[in-house]
C-alpha cells in the first residue's frame, strides 16, 4: 500500500507544482501554441513522476525524487514561455515554496485531526492517513487536503503572484541571494523529510509543520523583496539620471535667461531712442516696449534659482493662456541646492501646467504658487485647477494619466526623493475643485 500511495502522490505532486508555476507565470510572455504546449508538458511531467523509480525508501531518496520532479518542471517553463531562463528559475523557486507551504498546511491540519497518530499520507511510511485508499474516510481527508491547497494558493496568489505582471523583469541584481533562498528551501524540505521518516509524535510533527510554514513564508517574502529592491534601485537610477539632466537644463536656461535679459534691457533703451525721434507713432513704441517687457524678467523673490523657474514657467503660461500667480519668499529656500530646487519646483509647475492645459476654457486655467516661512518650517503650496478625475496610489501619490505608466511618473518620484533628502514631506490632495501640492521642509537645513 505504501508504494501505491507513493505512486499516486508523485502524480499529485507534479500537478501541484504545475498549478503553482502557472500562478506565477501566466502573465509572462508565452510562446506560440502555449495552450497546447503547457497542458501536454504537464501531462508528460505527471507520467514521468508516476514512474520515477523508487527502489528503496529513505529521507535522502525521497528528497531526491521530489526535487527531480521539480527540476524537470523548469525546462517546461523555458519551453512554454518566451522569457529569459532566470525568469523561469525565479518563478519555479517561488512555485516550489508555495507548494511546500500548502503541503505543510495540509500536513498540520491532518495531523491535528488524527492527533496521536502518524503524520500525513502513508507515502512516508505512516499508516494513519491514507488519502488514496478511496474510502469515505480517505475521501474526507483528501477534501481537507485539497481545501488546504486552495486556501494556500489563493492567499499566495493575492499576496505575491499578482506582483508579476506582463513585462516584469525578474532578473534580480543578486543572483547569489536568489540561489541562497532556493538552497534554504531545499534544506528546509530535506529536514522535513527526516522528521517524517523518524515518525516522531504529533507534538514534534506539529512544531515541525509550523516551523516549516514560517520558514517558507519568510523565504517567499525574501525572494519578492529582492525583486522589489531591484525595482526601487532601477527607479532610483532613473531619477538620478533625470536629475542630472535637469541640472544641465537649469544651467542652460539660466544662461539663456541672462542673455535674453541683457538683450532686452539694451533693446528697451534703443526703442526709447527711436521713439524720441518722433519718426515712429507712440502706440507702436508702446506695443514694442510691452513685447520686450514680457521677456525682460522682473521676478525677484530673493532666490535666483526660483526667479529662473518662475520666469521660464511664466513665459510658457502666458503663451498658453494660463493665469499664474506667485507669492514667494524665495530667501526661505536658499538652503536647497540649485539643481534640487529646479527639479523640485520645475517638475511641480510643469505638472500643474500640463493639468490646466486640459481645460478648454482659458479663464479657468489657474495656477497659484505660495512659498513662506511658518515658524521653523518652510511651506510650498502649489494649487491648480484641473479637469477630470485624479487617482492616487496607496502612498497618496497621484497616478500618471499617461497611456503607458511604465515610462512616466518619475517626476513625482524625483520630487519625493528631494523632499526626503531635506528631511521634508511631500503630499497631494484635491479640495474645492483644485489640485494641491504641499511641501513642508524644516528650515534648520540652513
Share of helix among residues?
A: 55-70%
Taking the alpha carbons of the first and last residues, their distance comes to 79 Å
**Percentage beta strand:** 5-15%
Note the total helix count: 11
Rg result: 33 Å
Residue windows where pLDDT falls under 50 for at least 5 positions? 121-128
Strand order of the largest sheet: 1-2-3-5-4
Report the major sheet: 5 strands, mixed
Order of helices and strands: HHHHHHHHHEHEEHEE
Computed structural class: alpha+beta
Q: Give the beta-strand count.
A: 5
Any overview of this molecule?
With 446 residues, the protein is an alpha+beta fold. Helices cover 62% and strands 9% of the residues. Helix 2 runs antiparallel to helix 3 (59-80), helix 3 (59-80) packs across helix 4 and helix 4 packs parallel to helix 6 (175-198). It starts with a helix and ends with a strand. Mean pLDDT is 78; it is low at 121-128.
Key phrases:
single chain; 446 residues; alpha+beta; 5-stranded mixed β-sheet; 11 helices; 5 strands; 62% helix; elongated
Amino acid at each position: 500500500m505504501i508504494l501505491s500511495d507513493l505512486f499516486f502522490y508523485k502524480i499529485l505532486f507534479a500537478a501541484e507544482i504545475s498549478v503553482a508555476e502557472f500562478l506565477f507565470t501566466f502573465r509572462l510572455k508565452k510562446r506560440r501554441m502555449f495552450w497546447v504546449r503547457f497542458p501536454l508538458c504537464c501531462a508528460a511531467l505527471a507520467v514521468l513522476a508516476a514512474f520515477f523509480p523508487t527502489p528503496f525508501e529513505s529521507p535522502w531518496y525521497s528528497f531526491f525524487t521530489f526535487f527531480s520532479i521539480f527540476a524537470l518542471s523548469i525546462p517546461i517553463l523555458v519551453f512554454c514561455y518566451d522569457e529569459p531562463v532566470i525568469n523561469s528559475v525565479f518563478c519555479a523557486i517561488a512555485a516550489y515554496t508555495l507548494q511546500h507551504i500548502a503541503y505543510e498546511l495540509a500536513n498540520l491540519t491532518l495531523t491535528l485531526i488524527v492527533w496521536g497518530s502518524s503524520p500525513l499520507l502513508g507515502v512516508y511510511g505512516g499508516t494513519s492517513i491514507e488519502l488514496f485508499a478511496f474510502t469515505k474516510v480517505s475521501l474526507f481527508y483528501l477534501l481537507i487536503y485539497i481545501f488546504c491547497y486552495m486556501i494556500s494558493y489563493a492567499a499566495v496568489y493575492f499576496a505575491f503572484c499578482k506582483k508579476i505582471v506582463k513585462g516584469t523583469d525578474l532578473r534580480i541584481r543578486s543572483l547569489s541571494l536568489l540561489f541562497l533562498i532556493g538552497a534554504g528551501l531545499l534544506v528546509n524540505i530535506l529536514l522535513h523529510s527526516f522528521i517524517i521518516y523518524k515518525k516522531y509524535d504529533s507534538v514534534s510533527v506539529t512544531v515541525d509543520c509550523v516551523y516549516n510554514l514560517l520558514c517558507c513564508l519568510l523565504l517567499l517574502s525574501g525572494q519578492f523583496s529582492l525583486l522589489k529592491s531591484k525595482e526601487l534601485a532601477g527607479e532610483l537610477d532613473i531619477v538620478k539620471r533625470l536629475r542630472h539632466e535637469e541640472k544641465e537644463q537649469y544651467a542652460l536656461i539660466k544662461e539663456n535667461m541672462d542673455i535674453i535679459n541683457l538683450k532686452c534691457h539694451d533693446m528697451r533703451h534703443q526703442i526709447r531712442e527711436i521713439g524720441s525721434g518722433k519718426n515712429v507713432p507712440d502706440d507702436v513704441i508702446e506695443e514694442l516696449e510691452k513685447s520686450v517687457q514680457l521677456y525682460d524678467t522682473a521676478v525677484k523673490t530673493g532666490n535666483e534659482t526660483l526667479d529662473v523657474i518662475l520666469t521660464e514657467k511664466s513665459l510658457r503660461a502666458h503663451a498658453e493662456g494660463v493665469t499664474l500667480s506667485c507669492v514667494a519668499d524665495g530667501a526661505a529656500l536658499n538652503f536647497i541646492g540649485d539643481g534640487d530646487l529646479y527639479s523640485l519646483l520645475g517638475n511641480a509647475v510643469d505638472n500643474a501646467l500640463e493639468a490646466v492645459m486640459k481645460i478648454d476654457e482659458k479663464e479657468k486655467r489657474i495656477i497659484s504658487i505660495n512659498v513662506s516661512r511658518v515658524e521653523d518650517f518652510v511651506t510650498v503650496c502649489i494649487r491648480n485647477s484641473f479637469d477630470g478625475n485624479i487617482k492616487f496610489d496607496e502612498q497618496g501619490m497621484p497616478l500618471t494619466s499617461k497611456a503607458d505608466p511604465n515610462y512616466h511618473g518619475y517626476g513625482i518620484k524625483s520630487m519625493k526623493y528631494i523632499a526626503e533628502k531635506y528631511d521634508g514631506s511631500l503630499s497631494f490632495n484635491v479640495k474645492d475643485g483644485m489640485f494641491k501640492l504641499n511641501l513642508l521642509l524644516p528650515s534648520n537645513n540652513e
